[in-house]
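User: Predict the structure for this protein chain, please.
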Amino acid sequence: MDISVIGSAFVLLFLAELGDKTQLMTITLAHRYPTRPVLAGTFLAFFVLNLLAVLMGAALYHYVPQEAVLIAAGLLFLLFAWRSWREAGDDEDETGQTSDGRGAFLASFTLIFVAELGDKTQLALIALAASTGALWSTFVGGTLALWAVAAIGVGLGSTLLRRIPRHWMHRVAAMLFLVFGLLALGKVMADIGA
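Assistant: Here is the predicted structure, written as C-alpha cells:
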C-alpha cells in the first residue's frame, strides 16, 4: 500500500463529496430511517462503487451510458420525493422512525448506488487509479473518504431528527429529491437536444 496515494485519494474524494448531493441525501435518509441501516447501506454502496471503479476503470463508464444512469437516478429521486411528501402528512409518532432496518438499508444502498454511479467522485477515483497504478491504495483512500463524508451526513441527519419536526424534514427532503430528479432528467434532455 502506498500511503501517499491513500492520502491523495482521501483528500480528493473527501473534499469533492463534502456538501454534495449524496451527503444531503444521506442526511435526509438518516432523518427518515434508523441510523445503523442507513450507515450500512451507504457504506456498502460506496464500497461496491469504489471496487467497481478501481477494477473496471474507464470501461465501466463506456459500458453504462450516462443517459441511462441519469434517467434511473432521476426517476429514483422523483419516487423518493413523492414518498417523502406523502409521509410528511402522515399522523405518525414524532419520535419514531418510518421504516424497519431492512427497508432503510435497501433504500440507502439503492439511492446512493444509483446517484453515485458515474458521478464525478467515481470518475475521479477511476482517473486516480489509472494514473497511479496503485489500485488498492486508491480504493482504500477513496472508500475511507466517502465513508467519512457519509458518517458526517448520518450524524447530522440523526441529530436533526431530535430538533426539527418530522413533517418539515419530510417536506424539505421531498423538495431536494424533486430538484435532484428534475436536474438529472433535465441533463438527459439537454444532452439529447445538443
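Residues 91-97 have pLDDT under 50 and may be disordered.
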